[in-house]
Amino acid sequence: MKLHHVPGARSCRVRWLLEELGIEYELDQKELRDGSLRSPEYLAKNPNGKVPTLEDDGVIFYESGAILQYLLERYGKGRLAPAIDSPSRPIFLQWFHWAEATLMPPMGVIMGNRFVLTEEDRSEAALSVARRQLANALRVLAGSVEGKAFLVDDELSAADIMVAYSLTLAKMVGELPEEPESLHHWLAGLAARPGYQTAFEGGFG
Ligand SMILES: N[C@@H](CCC(=O)N[C@@H](CS)C(=O)NCC(=O)O)C(=O)O
Question: Counting atoms of ligand 1 from 1, which one is nearest the CA of 62?
Fold first, then answer.
């Protein structure tokens, strides 16, 4: 199995899950700005020119959430996700998808307007709307992790991995406020795990 990865990118989610499941993998570590994500060989694997991309058993595919779901279904043996018929399953799915569908869009706008877009394409108005949306999402998350170590039941699930990646990104770029405390407490518990530490090796590249 081969994971195409950039330090600090969403491929950290995949690496973290691989570590937690104890799956052996080869890492193809790339950099955001050296053009390697735009090479014809890489674009043949992922025409979006983004990471993560996973190669396993003759199949090549992308989208961090889809990759996590595939790994759980194929290699999870029931770990890191509530059973399909568990009442916790819908809540697990809710948070799993909330990470990319609700938390990441404002982060994308913030990252774009702070680091990626050219000066003329940047917009203070867009940045301030995205920060309001982020604050709203963080308020929702904070209420759900208050006094808890994990989002679902009392154990680590792939929903924690999906969401904690996004929160780590917000923290790394100074977009995570000091309050509410519950967010920092929840993230610190997850960040103490060896799998998290391996996944985030190299910081944000
Ligand atoms: N929804 C996709 C987003 C993938 C994505 O945007 N990856 C970023 C890094 S976090 C990337 O590779 N950006 C490189 C670029 O746009 O040049 C996923 O979850 O896999």
Answer: 20
What tokens appear for 191 in the block?
Answer: 């960040």
Nearby residues of 3 by Cβ (< 8 Å), 6 or more positions away: 11, 14, 15, 18, 25, 26, 27, 28, 52, 53, 54
Q: Report the separation in Å between the CA atom of 48 and the middle of ligand 1, taken as the mean of its atom positions.
A: 8
| Sign of the dihedral through C-alpha 113, 97, 102, 16 | negative
Q: Whose CA is nearest to atom 19 of ligand 1?
A: 64
> Does the C-beta of 117 come closer than 6 Å to ligand 1?
no
Going from the N-terminus, what domains does the chain have, and what CATH number goes with each?
2-75 (3.40.30.10), 89-199 (1.20.1050.10)
Q: pLDDT tens per residue, the chain (205 residues)?
A: 999 999 999 999 999 999 999 999 999 999 998 999 999 999 999 999 999 999 999 999 999 999 999 999 999 999 999 999 999 999 999 999 999 999 999 999 999 999 999 999 999 999 999 999 999 999 999 999 999 999 999 999 999 999 999 999 999 999 999 999 999 999 999 999 999 999 999 988 6
Other residues' Cβ atoms within 10 Å of the Cβ of residue 119: 5
Please indicate whether residue 177, judged by its CB atom, sits closer than 6 Å to ligand 1.
Answer: no
